[in-house]
Amino acid sequence: MQSPLIPPNILAVVGMLVLAGCQPGSNPHPVPSVPQIGGDLKCSQGDHGYEDLQAGWGFCYPGTWKYNERSQTTVSPPGLDLTFDITCLTNCKVPCPTASAGSGSAQCSPQTGLFAYMIVSTYQRSGSADLANWVGANMKPAPDLETISWGNAQEAARLPDGRRIALTPHHVVILDVHTGVLDLETEMSSRLGTWKFSY
């Protein structure tokens, strides 16, 4: 029994389709069908990105961390608190005691399984013209603000208790870092520039 012949024009069309699919630049890499968390953040090699689209911010953190996240709404001022319970799995930085005079520098070796937590609070801006105006209306007594740079925030400051506060077009964000055995303050302060606030 003979197999049917395929017309030459069909073979030509199939050949052109195969050739077109192999052209460079036609589809350089597959595109994920769902948004990647923190995919648009510019994190250093070894860091991971976290992004909360509802809260309107994202940041980079060490890839050696794992975290559990809890959320709670706030009433006054209206907003959302996200708490991150963080465990560092390997190569964790620990706070080093200051070396006493003449004893040289303190040697602190990286450890594993260390923990700490932080709270990122996101509040409605509620028409405040600037950060000082929002602080005056919502924090009693109004604390002094030390101007800092924090990602792409419109304004940012450090509060006397060490918390950081940022003003974005729609929100006010407060970062409250609680160093436990893990030196979370050092890790997060060195990554303030990675924060991206939605505009």
Descriptors:
single chain; 199 residues; alpha+beta; Protein Transport Mog1p, Chain A; 7-stranded antiparallel β-sheet; 3-stranded antiparallel β-sheet; 10 strands; 14% helix; globular
List the helices and strands and how they pair.
Layout: H1 8-21, E1 47-52, E2 57-62, E3 65-74, E4 79-88, E5 114-124, H2 131-138, E6 146-147, E7 155-158, E8 164-167, E9 171-178, H3 184-189, E10 196-197
Antiparallel strand pairs: 1-2, 2-10, 3-4, 4-5, 5-9, 6-7, 7-8, 8-9
What does this structure look like?
This protein has 199 residues and is of the alpha+beta class. The protein has one domain: Protein Transport Mog1p, Chain A (3-Layer(aba) Sandwich), CATH 3.40.1000. The protein is 14% helix and 32% strand. Strands 3-4-5-9-8-7-6 form a seven-stranded antiparallel β-sheet. Strands 1-2-10 form a three-stranded antiparallel β-sheet, with no helix packed on it. A hairpin with a 7-residue loop joins strand 6 and strand 7 (155-158). The longest helix has 14 residues, at 8-21. The protein starts with 7 loop residues before the first helix and ends with a strand. Residues 16-37 have low confidence and may be disordered.
